[in-house]
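Continuing the series of single-chain predictions for the mutant panel. This is the parent chain; the variants come on the following pages.
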Amino acid sequence: MTLLKSEIKKAIKLANKVNGCNDATLTGYYYERDELSDFIRVFCEICHDYEGRAEHDVEIEIFLPDRRRSYAHAFVNGQYYTTHKY
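Parent structure:
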């Protein structure tokens, strides 16, 4: 499975927010899919400055029937961050 540009942008935007930087890069990812669900959970590895691994990684939830509804989220110090608009 390949991520869409918009999904990568969501992950990078959230990674910059939770890590307090502005140069995050998605360097790798893997995914899990539950056959009974319409969602795929993508675990993203984030680096900054093209060198150091970011302190907090990001996950993307991909909704297969309509990938425009995909969103990124992260748990940092017990606080939930997301790009999902309720």
